[in-house]
Amino acid sequence: MVFLKRSLPGNSKRRPSFPSQNLQPSVPAASDVTLGPDSHQDNMSLMISLLAEAGCTLSVSGDSPPSLPADPHKLRRHIENRLSSDPSIAPRFLSGLSSYVQNPQNLRRVLIPASHYSGGSSWIESLARVLLLVAPIQPQILDLLLGKLPEYFNADIAHALRPLKDDISRLIVNQLRWLDFIVDSDCFAEKLMEVLSISPTSLKKEIIGSLPEIIGEKSHTTVVLALEKMLLEDSEIIVPVLDSFSNLNLNEQLQERAITIALSCIRTVDAEKMPHLLRFLFLSTTPANTGRIISQIRDQLKFVGAVDPHSARNKKLKENSLAESTDALILDALRSSLRFKNILCEAILKELKSIDQPRHHKVIDVWFLMLIYNNGRSLQKDVQKILKKKILDGCFSEALFDQCITGHRELVKDYFPSFISLCEYLLSCKEKQVRHFSIHLYTSLFGEFKDTYSKQEVVGALVTHIGSGIAHEVTSALDTLILLTSRYSEELIPISSHITGILDYMESFQGDNMHKVYEVFSRLALFARSREDNTRSSIANEVLMIIRKQVSNADMTYRKMGVIGTLKIVSTFGDVNAPSGFLSSQKSNSDDALELLRMSLDSLKLVPLTLILLYDELSALLEDVVLKPEIIEWIGKHVSEFEVMFLSDLEGGQLPTNTFFNDVEGELWINLDGDTSPVYLKILPLLSFSPQQQSESLQILTSQFLLLSVVERLTNQGSLGGIDALLGCPLLLPSSKYLSGVHWKKLTEKQKKTLCFTLFYAINWIRELLNAFSSQIANKVESITPNTKVETMNKLLKRLRNLLVMESILDVILKACPQSLPEVCFSMDQFGTVFGWRKSSERVLSEVIPPKKKKKHKPDPSASGNLGHHGKLRQPTIIDALKKSSMQASQEGSDEGSPRYLSHEKTPPTEHCIVGADELGVIDISAVPKFLDAQKSKFRPLNVDCLSLLCFSEVMDSINKMQLPLYLYILRDFRCKLDDFCSPSKQFPIPCPEKASTVFCRRTTGEFLNKIKPVFGSLRKHLDKAVSVLRSGSATCDNHWKSESCCAGNPVLSNLLVSETSVASSVFIEVLRCYNRILVLDELYHQKNMQILKDLLEAFHSTEVPLNYFSRHQQIPMPGELDYMYYDVYSFLEGILETSFLLSFSLASEVVVTLQTLVNPKIVVSCKFQETVGYVGCSQNALNSLRCRLSLAAHRLLVYDWSSKDTEWKSNGDIIQKILQIYLTNTECTSDLLNELACSILPQVHAK
């Protein structure tokens, strides 16, 4: 059916109803006159003679139609004149006509087109049609014809396919169309509706479809009401009813009634008729009703999979095909209705925007967006924004899109380019949640479409993403490919040539992305080798050939690629669950993996950095993948060379006679096992003889030990009992006497360098010892006895004390004699920049060059935010200044004590060395080792397991305050790790730029949170201990520290200094910084991490929460609820703030900053979508209450008189500005505060 627009004018052929006052008095119907048989015959004769007078010859037998004159108007005028001149003729004429048509043959004669009087072959109107245009008798003839209709209902049903000339019912209906006038339209409409209500379905549809051509405008109300009633009884007539509604010239009120009728049929109409209904509704939209129509369609339309049970009963395949066909028709109806109708599309988008609950969204919403997006033009960007927001808010789930795609290939096929385009947009977004959604869509599309073209389109889009050079986009695209290779390897093999395009971008990949590339190729290679098709195995041969070439290449960049590729092949081919190999002519997969590993080790023996990378990556691989026994056995034999390379025997715990190496006297340091120690680590000898070769062997010392410890754990049920002698064995280093001023002055530059390097290697050895043996405490190892565990704990604490002292000594040496330290771990920026990361040399040089030597540039006003809308300079506002100062303060606060480190530092200039080259000066244990930290990237990083040192029960129960420097060291490292996760530049999971390629770098935030969960309680205990020390007011405790240091085997140094108050203050600050950095991690507020959040809050609980905290709550939260726990933590920190007011401004300001982090508004934003995306947080009432208290705390800090307690507070202008911003942003009345600040507080701020 073709529906006409409501704006079209009425049909020009339709005449208004004939005015009844201009007609002769109505003539009684023939049936109202009682006549005998003779009278009927006489009336028929009268009727025939009257027609004959008018020029019409009426046959009484045969099939020939009546013969009419050439001008039918003369016939009508003549009959009308006779009836007007003699009113008695009309009843008799009608009676005769009624008698005549009693015979079906005669009725057919008057209904079929008549012939010319001349007997020609051309046809004109029927006799019934001519008589219907005679006004005096029109109502009676209409009644006569409508009365005849029911007599032929059964005949119509029995002969449904008869031609029109033989179908009496249809002939009668045909006479009613396009009449020039209707004398009594209301009566006729009522009579027609009565007949229509009892008509068979086929005839009913015929009549309803003809109603716009039959009924006058005065009767529209009757028609609409009657059709509404009929629809309730029979939904089969929906299509002709909608056709009539579209073509009837309804007024506004009736049009709305028709729309309401159509809307009520959405749920009940058969699926195959739904497209007609939707077209009618969308064509009927106006600015006033658009919202209602769209809302009702969304709520009631059952889309995708709707099947007509009557036409496809008990036929599964037919049901599916019909469903797809029906849904396709519905989509086509929607698409044609929305095409070129921006107003309608905008109304749909507005309706979708207003929905904020996922349970209210349906499949049709997704298709609405796809259809509008498919139309193109300006609305595409609006669709992208809405889709992104819905995903971020959790309103659109992956399951919702699965209902659109999975199992509906034929539906999606026409819109496949639009789906791909939207996937490309989503994968390019910065938000991780949106990109994960795109990964799911790409995977669904690839799995649903079986044709090669569609799969090539998906792979091509992913390769384009990978070549974009945008870090997060590349990472997500590679994640998608990994997912595809794990599920659809067989489908990817034929189109693998498209995937090899990734190799063109390999030089720009770093870290995790390179791992992912080789994971894709190694999985494809493994699958290809498991098939009996030689052509398929070509990709495996190609991958192996590329890796061999990379490992053998002289360029370090390609060697790095080859190392990662080698280990990916080993992890895939050598996995214990991987197939052994299918073709008899091939080697087994594990043999090929082992051969590649051997070849890589042989090629890298003379390249320490890449060998370090190989050992580190292989260690991480062994932790994550269970390899086949033959590979483990070979690796075990390889690492057994460690003892020969790096260890020597002791004779009764003493060194051999020769203790001088290149004029440097050697000495055993940090011997924890005393005379029972069987071996020592020969660092000084290896550095002294054959410098190039031995120095390179020392570079791989720690990485080879890491591999050794991992293999030992794997082969010894998690225990390191086979190598536990290494934990306590001494180190052969230069004599400690060289650290005194007299002997230090006598050392040559070469000897000083030897001393510096040996300490450097010793420090990294201890770090790796802590990494290895901390796993024995952090993880539950059943084979370790309690006594062994306690002994290991004590040794680890002593090693930590060794590490702290040695780093302090090395920092002082670097300060007096700057050196560029060698590399003992693989740094990610060894080989250039990636996606905007600067080389370490560039960053370090920018840090160490003095301000006076830096090139001066004119300040860029645009960079400072001082440009107005028209590009002109404008006066900075208070808010601009606060934002700028806050950014500077946050950067300085995060960098203080933990500068960002990268490798390849240049030697610091001599003007930075405060101490002369001939003396070392004081060694402060609690100070931040700034000169050592400048080259921190060259040191081995501590693993997360080392945080377990904070939790040792023996230490926690001890009241020995001299343990605090050890925990300060671990806390600073902990804060650096947290900075890597919460840094603004790391919104995406990219490799750590300053660290080696370790497991920590590839750890997700969720995994990290689970790993640090046991530390929460220890943070609280260390904070309490630091507060206790600060309250007691102790100054220094060198004697206590030296006693503990000697027990750990450290050398006795007269210039060693430990300030108890300084250590306690640093512990205080570091604990709070660690706590607030954990609070800003987004993953902490995911529903799955709710218990971790509660544990974190519980760790810092107070003894009791004052009742005035709950003033904004109608009902006081119960203990255990999140609101109560937030109040509890705030109460505890507020108590700490009271104590800090008695100590120093820096401590008090750190507490206020932590309070600000606790009441971060994002916890309520997260809470808003708890039900949608699984976030948890406190209520808005709790947030408002805590922010009010925070404002008061910041105000108190700003107005507090620090002159008598802290003389340096005025120099902390940046911190004061940050506290001021906290005060302003959390107050309820900013204008009054600005007035107060301008008059009383700001004048006190020290001007920089």
From TrEMBL:
Source domain of life: Eukaryota
A Pfam family of this chain: FancD2
UniProt organism field: Platanthera zijinensis
GO terms for cellular component: condensed chromosome; nucleus
Chief site of localization: nucleus
Signal peptide: none
Tagged with keyword S-adenosyl-L-methionine: no
PANTHER family: FANCONI ANEMIA GROUP D2 PROTEIN
Stored InterPro entries: ARM-type_fold (IPR016024), FANCD2 (IPR029448)
Compartment(s) where it occurs, according to its Swiss-Prot or TrEMBL record: Nucleus
Protein keywords: Isopeptide bond, Nucleus, Ubl conjugation
Protein name per its UniProtKB record: Fanconi anemia group D2 protein
GO MF annotations, alphabetized: DNA polymerase binding
Keyword Ubl conjugation: yes
